[in-house]
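Whiteboard transcription, Tuesday session. T.W. wrote the structure tokens on the left side:
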């Protein structure tokens, strides 16, 4: 099976994961169009705008919170059965949403059930690409995550057309049928290489001692702020378009253009991260995302300027989902990668749940209704960028210490000379001291 690494079978897996992402993350991306429709129509009696915002955030947060459950299902059922269960849940969620008559029906279907179906499928495929690729690992991961943008493009336009033509119930039913067919095919194609070479899954334990490490808190901070900003832009673009006088069609086009940016931006980020450095490219894209919010979105008062922001933001603001795995490996190492990601997903369930709700609550009445939302989003990305700056400094220091250790151990020294590496787990520093027979430190 070693010959399969970077081979044709590996790229078939990439295609399957690409379209699988398109039919769960892409459908969730279209919720911004549903949100704009819900807020402009009295769809559910007694519901508030905040309710609709929570539903979209709830779906994303549930997808992240169930990572421990997904691990257990893998152990008990295997990859394909686990993913098939996710497809069934997603289908049931969309069909349930189509028959919803009260807002709490939508909470359970579109929010909780869809989030579980999405999470089971997405988290099942996050560890596939490292199994099948060596040289082109980041490029393959970028192509897979670009499926979210492709699906978002398709469903942002298709959902608006279906809402106009068929209304809410049949729009949900059509989405349920399409995703069921496509995702079922993807499940049949996807293969887990580890199960063939290593054998049955071993039940991993989450290493919560990672919380004691300085670099882990920087990684969590970057993830937390990035997800918070991402959720606001992801779901707010269509409703923001309505606030500046654009039509619902123009709002859905803006969301579609944002997803076009993700289609091309995510593979490019994956390719560049292998050459420039994972933390470097993540810091650059995060900084640009913050600047776009503060310098372009704030002044986007026309259709053309909003389209420009949507395209540029789409290229950069979804970088987190492309590089989060490689950056986590840089921070905690391969042995603790699954624990580090599980901890991060659980923590990021908070901004995923409340990000869009906070963004909508920051709106004010008047000409600049979304100014508070825009500033909040921009500063979230600025905070994420600062975390990466500190993380990069830590990584550079770590490289220096490693190089000094390697140099010291490879130097031909006398028997009375020795190199001592002192590492204090849980502390915010790491010391390397070189002790010789002369007492030099």
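and on the right, the sequence the group agreed on:
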């Amino acid at each position: 099976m070693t010959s399969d690494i970077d081979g044709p079978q590996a790229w078939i897996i990439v295609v399957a994961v690409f379209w699988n992402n398109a039919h769960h993350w892409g459908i969730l991306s279209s919720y911004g169009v549903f949100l704009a429709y819900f807020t402009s129509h009295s769809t559910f009696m007694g519901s508030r705008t905040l309710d609709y915002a929570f539903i979209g955030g709830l779906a994303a947060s549930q997808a992240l919170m169930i990572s421990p459950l997904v691990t257990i299902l893998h152990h008990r059922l295997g990859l394909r059965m686990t993913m098939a269960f996710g497809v069934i849940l997603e289908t049931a969620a969309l069909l349930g949403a189509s028959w919803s008559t009260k807002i709490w029906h939508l909470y359970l279907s579109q929010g909780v059930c869809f989030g579980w179906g999405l999470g089971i499928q997405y988290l099942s495929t996050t560890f596939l690409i490292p199994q099948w690729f060596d040289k082109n690992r980041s490029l393959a991961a970028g192509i897979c995550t670009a499926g979210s943008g492709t699906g978002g493009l398709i469903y942002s336009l298709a959902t608006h057309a279906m809402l106009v033509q068929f209304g809410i119930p049949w729009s949900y039913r059509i989405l349920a049928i399409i995703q069921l067919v496509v995702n079922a095919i993807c499940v049949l194609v996807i293969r887990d290489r580890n199960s063939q070479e290593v054998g049955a899954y071993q039940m991993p334990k989450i290493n919560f001692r990672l919380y004691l490490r300085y670099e882990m808190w920087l990684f969590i901070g970057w993830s937390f702020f990035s997800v918070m900003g991402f959720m606001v832009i992801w779901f707010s673009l269509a409703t923001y378009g309505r606030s500046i006088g654009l039509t619902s069609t123009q709002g859905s086009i803006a969301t579609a253009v944002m997803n076009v940016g993700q289609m091309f931006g995510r593979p490019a980020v994956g390719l560049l991260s292998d050459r420039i450095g994972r933390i470097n490219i993540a810091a650059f894209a995060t900084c640009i995302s913050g600047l776009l919010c503060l310098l372009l979105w704030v002044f986007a008062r026309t259709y053309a300027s909003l389209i420009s922001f949507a395209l540029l933001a789409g290229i950069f603001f979804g970088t987190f989902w492309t590089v989060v795995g490689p950056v986590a490996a840089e921070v905690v190492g391969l042995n603790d990668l699954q624990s580090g990601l599980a901890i991060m997903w659980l923590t990021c369930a908070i901004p995923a749940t409340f990000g869009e709700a906070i963004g909508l609550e920051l709106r004010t009445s008047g000409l600049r209704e979304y100014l508070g939302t825009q500033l909040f989003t921009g500063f979230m990305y600025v905070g994420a960028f600062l975390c990466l700056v500190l993380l990069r400094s830590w990584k550079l220091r770590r490289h220096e210490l490693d190089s000094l250790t390697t140099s010291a151990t490879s130097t031909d020294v006398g028997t009375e000379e020795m190199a001592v590496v002192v590492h204090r787990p849980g502390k915010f520093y790491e010391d390397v001291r070189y002790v010789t027979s002369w007492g030099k430190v």
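Someone added at the bottom: The chain has two domains: 1-193, 207-402.
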